[in-house]
């Protein structure tokens, strides 16, 4: 029996698709498998033994494929928990299938669609990995070919041991826990970096023009996609609202810096300079400079100072018509594909709506408007309230304190705090300092549930070595979720909440050492002439308030109308022939973005939307920009060459709780 993934093609254009999943609930439903103590002797897994075991499993799987028997395929997978994560290789979509029976049926169906005839082969040597005291596995790269379209695919299998029998004797057998498959390249065009040196087009006084791909945005997500497309021989044009490439960083607050290793943020084809790597956190101006250098070095087509006036889609011709105001006048672009690369949860400041804002006589601003302490001091500010307790809030707290301003942090709810040493540990993101490509292949090829479990286990292992690290912070009333807390899942903060965490680069010491004040467990409920009234009945005074309360544009369905040049979600823009739809109608057809779906996949990014052709959204973190710029570019290239198969959205067999899908 086959069910349409999520809703089906007849879904109402007003209903959110796909439905939002819950990562932490998924982790509870699918805990990490536990290998019984004594079941496996690690000393036996040396030399070629992991590779030999992996080869035996793949031989068994290939034989099962040849038989076309779902039960034989199912028997190759770990019985109590199994995943297949596919990134375009067979589904030409981003999917994660769960349970051996579902995987077996979907594998056989998509394998036939793609024309996989030679089976899966080992790529390199397999490795035996001790992840935790109760979880050991074999990790082995794989490679295979597809005929429809002609392509090379890679991936890996992660194998777990089970007790079996050989010749009536008890023996250890290996089964597939995770199968990961990735489209590596299309035969018709591999990435060619020499194409990046071709000259760009000039769009001075642009007027009307046509292009293959029109990208709204000019930040990291946009430029990495433009470069990937150029390396595949696909023309694109970026429309950037700011006057220069990199100004998306320049206009952030002066002290802004990344809280991850530099290597984690490398862009494809052009890594950061050696002096900016290792024990260095990228600063705002370094980020801006790299974007400018990237655009210049690769001669990418970018129109700056572009303000989108109106975006329409012709349902008959399948062409996008984008009217925008450039620095020299009005322009109209006609494009086969449209990509939104304006950022997710980064454009629409979220300031809680509370009473009596007219009473406050000081400065009140969102962190998006904050630049530096001088901006405040020039207005006579001597005291500051920082509302929030995540990364930006601590940056502003440190900045204002260093300038001699009396600073108070208002902590509204618990915050997941992770020391920078944990993040940069070689077993976590510090792996990027060793080999960026290998780290991407480790972290971005695992199902979200598995990746989150393994990362949490590693963070907890580090935290267990210093369980009282944040005891002083707790003692002053700060509600901490450290890495030992059962609800501490960093990926939840990153892809579901888009915040609520702090990578501690030293800011917490300002609070524990009494250099900055704290008011915790309260919500601002109203302004007063001199500050804020809080939910516990108290009031707090300050000359300025900086709201570090995040952004409200997590879901592109809510922000697309404005990005596309519309005025409201209620307007209905149609051409005279009825084939043209405008911003409001476009927005209602979009997939929801951010958060995860029922399979653990990030919603709406880097893949086709169900109800709208040739429309794409890119964004996420710099790691995503590097990896998924390729994911998106390959789909567009395949579409341009007429070889892009339909996205496989079906799920053979019904999940135990089909209502959640």
Outline the fold blueprint:
Elements: E1 2-4, H1 23-29, H2 49-67, H3 70-74, E2 83-87, E3 94-98, H4 100-114, E4 121-122, E5 127-132, E6 135-147, E7 150-166, E8 169-186, E9 208-216, H5 220-231, E10 236-239, H6 247-250, H7 284-297, E11 302-303, E12 307-314, E13 319-326, E14 329-340, E15 363-366, H8 373-377, E16 383-387, H9 391-402, E17 406-411, E18 415-419, H10 420-423, H11 436-443, H12 448-464, H13 471-475, E19 480-481, H14 490-497, E20 501-504, H15 508-512, E21 517-520, E22 524-528, E23 531-534, E24 539-541, E25 544-547, H16 556-563, E26 580-581, H17 583-588, E27 615-617, H18 622-640, E28 650-652
Parallel strand pairs: 2-8, 9-10, 9-14, 10-11, 14-27, 15-25, 16-17, 16-25, 17-21, 18-19, 18-20
Antiparallel strand pairs: 1-28, 2-3, 4-6, 5-6, 6-7, 7-8, 12-13, 12-26, 13-14, 22-23, 23-24
Helix pairs in contact: 1-12, 5-18
């Amino acid at each position: 029996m086959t069910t349409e993934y999520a809703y089906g093609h007849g879904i109402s254009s007003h209903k959110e698709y796909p439905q939002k999943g819950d990562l932490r609930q998924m982790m509870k439903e699918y805990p990490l498998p536990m290998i019984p103590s004594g079941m496996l002797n690690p000393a036996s897994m040396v030399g070629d033994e992991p590779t030999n075991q992996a080869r035996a499993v793949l031989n068994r799987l290939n034989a099962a494929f040849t038989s076309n028997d779902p039960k034989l395929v199912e028997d190759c997978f770990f019985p109590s928990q199994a995943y297949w994560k596919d990134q375009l290789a067979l589904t030409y979509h981003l999917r994660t299938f769960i349970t051996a029976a579902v995987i077996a049926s979907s594998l056989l169906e998509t394998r036939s669609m793609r024309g996989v005839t030679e089976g899966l082969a080992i790529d390199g040597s397999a490795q035996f990995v001790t992840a935790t005291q109760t979880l050991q596995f074999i990790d082995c790269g794989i490679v295979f070919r597809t005929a429809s379209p002609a392509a090379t695919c890679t991936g890996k299998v992660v194998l777990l041991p089970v007790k079996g029998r050989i010749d009536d004797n008890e023996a250890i057998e290996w089964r597939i826990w995770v199968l990961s498959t990735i489209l590596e390249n299309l035969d018709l065009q591999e990435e060619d970096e020499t194409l990046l040196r071709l000259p760009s087009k000039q769009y001075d006084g642009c007027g009307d023009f046509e292009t293959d791909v029109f990208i709204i945005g000019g930040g990291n997500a946009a430029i990495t996609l433009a470069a990937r497309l150029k390396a595949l021989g696909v023309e694109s044009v970026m429309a950037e609202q700011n006057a220069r490439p990199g100004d998306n960083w320049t206009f952030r607050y002066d002290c802004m810096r990344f809280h991850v290793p530099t290597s984690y943020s490398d862009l494809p084809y052009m890594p950061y300079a050696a002096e900016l790597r290792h024990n260095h956190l990228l600063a705002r101006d370094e980020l801006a400079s790299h974007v400018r250098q990237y655009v210049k070095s690769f001669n990418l087509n970018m129109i700056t100072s572009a303000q989108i006036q109106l975006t329409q889609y012709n349902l008959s011709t399948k062409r996008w018509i984008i009217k925008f105001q450039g620095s020299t006048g009005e322009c109209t672009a006609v494009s086969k594909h449209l990509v939104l690369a304006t950022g997710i949860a980064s454009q629409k400041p979220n300031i809680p709506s509370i009473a009596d804002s007219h009473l406050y006589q000081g400065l009140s601003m969102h962190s998006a408007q904050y630049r530096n302490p001088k901006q405040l001091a020039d207005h006579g500010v001597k005291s500051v309230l920082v509302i929030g307790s995540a990364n930006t809030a601590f940056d502003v707290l440190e900045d204002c304190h260093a300038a001699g301003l009396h600073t108070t942090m208002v902590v509204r709810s618990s915050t997941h705090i992770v020391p920078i040493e944990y993040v940069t540990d070689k077993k976590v993101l510090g792996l990027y300092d060793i080999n960026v490509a290998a780290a991407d292949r480790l972290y971005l090829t695992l199902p979200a549930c598995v990746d989150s479990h393994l990362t949490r286990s590693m963070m907890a292992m580090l935290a267990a070595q210093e369980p009282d690290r944040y005891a002083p912070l707790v003692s002053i009333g700060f509600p901490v979720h450290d890495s030992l807390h059962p609800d501490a899942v960093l990926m939840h903060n990153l892809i579901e909440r888009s915040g609520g965490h702090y990578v501690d680069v030293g800011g917490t010491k300002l609070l524990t050492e009494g250099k900055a004040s704290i008011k915790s467990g309260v919500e601002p409920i109203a302004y007063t002439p001199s500050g804020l009234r809080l939910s516990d009945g108290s009031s707090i005074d300050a000359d300025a308030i900086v709201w570090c309360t995040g952004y409200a544009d997590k879901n592109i369905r809510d922000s697309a109308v404005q990005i596309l040049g519309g005025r409201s979600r209620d307007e209905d823009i149609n051409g005279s022939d009825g084939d043209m739809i405008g911003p409001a109608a476009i927005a209602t057809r979009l997939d929801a973005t951010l958060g995860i779906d029922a399979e653990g996949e990030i919603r709406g990014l880097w893949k086709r939307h169900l109800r709208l052709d040739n429309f794409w959204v890119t964004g996420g973190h710099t790691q995503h920009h590097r990896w998924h710029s390729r994911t998106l570019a390959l789909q567009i290239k395949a579409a341009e060459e007429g070889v892009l198969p339909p996205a496989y959205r079906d799920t053979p067999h019904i999940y135990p709780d089909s209502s959640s899908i």
